[in-house]
Amino acid sequence: xxxxxxxxxxxxxxxxxxxxxxxxxxxxxxxxxxxxxxxxxxxxxxxxxxxxxxxxxxxxxxxxxxxxxxxxxxxxxxxxxxxxxxxxxxxxxxxxxxxxxxxxxxxxxxxxxxxxxxxxxxxxxxxxxxxxxxxxxxxxxxxxxxxxxxxxxxxxxxxxxxxxxxxxxxxxxxxxxxxxxxxxxxxxxxxxxxxxxxxxxxxxxxxxxxxxxxxxxxxxxxxxxxxxxxxxxxxxxxxxxxxxxxxxxxxxxxxxxxxxxxxxxxxxxxxxxxxxxxxxxxxxxxxxxxxxxxxxx
Length: 297
Known about the structure:
Elements: H1 2-31, E1 46-55, E2 60-61, E3 68-73, E4 80-81, E5 86-90, H2 93-96, H3 99-129, H4 136-168, E6 171-173, E7 178-183, E8 190-191, E9 198-201, E10 205-212, E11 225-229, E12 232-250, E13 265-273, E14 286-292
Antiparallel strand pairs: 1-10, 1-14, 2-9, 3-5, 3-8, 4-7, 5-6, 7-9, 10-13, 11-12, 11-14, 12-13
Helix pairs in contact: 3-4
């Protein structure tokens, strides 16, 4: 019996020691948490807002006037491009197959023009010898045949030129100097007018700042602003005011803060990054923005 109670006692002691060890360990972990970063506020009086990095050109969803299977891809995400650089090509086999037919039609029409001109030249020479050798009806008929042959040649040439222009549409080119923000295009995939597989943007950036409607009255156009990189307050960028979107709208960009209110309405103000920083900025990145308010001047 003593042995039984002794075992029970030892078990309880072991359990107590285990619980204590776990509790003590948790206390140590909570005590070693990294402190929240602190930094010097840029202004004495300010408006705090959340900024979203945007391309200066806005996001350009590249489209095409033709659809089909992608034959070649010349760029990938992150590539820098110049205006006019090829981005990708669509298979043009079904359209190009008409080119030999039109080339043959052009050749045939050219032969007809040459033949009609030759006959007309003969008639003109005969008229010079004697005006009575050729009737007016005969001359008019040959002249009409020549003009008709020329018109037909011009028509066929325009059809061929139109085909050449259409074939150019099967290669899509960069509309601006910029960066490929996203490319999901692959060889063999289908591309049509509704595709959003390729997005371009300029290499310069704007920051769209969301200001709580309760702080909107404090904001003055042209106010200075500084944006800080989340997670590294030592990295910041100065911002120049561009314009205000004069509409209070529901907030759609969620920061993930546990105290964030999702039913907030905001005023949106657009600033330009006035100097390219020595650290990367990414389109869609969230920044902590501080705008100097009127009281700080």
